[in-house]
Amino acid sequence: MEASMADWSQLPRELVVLIASRIEHLSDYIRFCAVCKWWLSITAQENPRPRLRESPWLMLPAKNNNYSHQLYSPLMEDRFHPIKQEEKEETCLLALGSSPDGWVCMVDQKGNIYLFNPFSGSRFALPPFLVKKYSNNVSNQGLRGLPCEHLIKVAWTPDPTNSGPKSVVISTTKRLAVWRHSKQEQYWTTFWSEYAPFSDIVYHEEEDMFFMMSHFGCLMTFDLYSLIKVACHLPRPPRDISKMLIVSKELRYYLAIRGGPSSSSSSLVLVVREIEKRKTKGFKVFELNRRRMRWEPKESLEDDGMLFLGLNSSTYHFMTGGGGSKCKGNRIYFTDDSIGRSSYDDNLNNLGRHDMGVFSLDDGSFEWNHCRKWKGPHPIWIFPNWRLPSIDFEM
Predict the structure, then answer these.
(1) Domain KIB1-4 beta-propeller: where (predicted)?
(2) Could you tell me the pTM of the whole model?
(3) Which end of the chain has the lower number of beta carbons within 10 A, N or C?
(4) 339 in Cβ contact with 278 (< 8 Å)
């Protein structure tokens, strides 16, 4: 008597969801979805969350004209995965800002701006850069035609999959631009601030608030609901960076939200990047003490954490268990975020290099990724959101 073959498509929905929720890696999740149409349909509808957060990926310019970008995964055997170029799709000039939900903000050669999820292929168009005059401190000039090197950072409220983000905030070299989708606005509002420009913007979900760091080290918040002013909470940078200012001509400030298994609430983390001749020389990490309202230096990252810095939304990442991540804890992973500026020259055949690498807080050492200069958008860290991707994986 022949043994009957198991019909995997007959598994109950609850069991499929349970299995999918216990998968630890994106590559296994993709293969799971590809077993049969029933499993694919269930995972698309239920979107079960995995046990672990996947390590961030890098989105890089594509080498082939048939593709718009390529993704680099540190975990998968075939590490480079191209994203197909859509017909009549404008060439992307800049990828600016990414979120833990897998979305990245893109600007094309016509100045159009949109949110794009390279894992699902979804897009969310943002309004044209046309601005309605709001008050005396608000500019009536739009942002259309603004060179890419004048854009600094973009942040938005989480997961625009369904109805779109509540708000999007863009920092430029001279002003702040805000679009409030929750109020059904059809325009961007821009205004000047005495603290501009802002080097980083991060959305704090627990407080439903955007925090910003000025180029001069001032911590700010922005009132999204009244659009009246930017509030300054800490007018000065930490004292510990005074020595860095003496020896370095350029400092960059990054803000990240730290959660983690050892903390009941999140906190603000400040990272100061020291740059000399367009090359990173070191980092300092601080955490905000809310009671004393001051920045306190940190010698290491709690929960064996990792910081991912660059054009993306600065992210404090940690692994909640095993899972084989090749990213090491207590490290800062950084990419080149010098938009519109040439890369540094290390006198190796006079070829410019991009300022990318890994900094260890254990011993202060660097591991450099000496990528040669490329055409197209700068590399940016992105974060898998566990929806079926549109990239070309081989099963």
Answers:
(1) 78-360
(2) 0.78
(3) N
(4) no
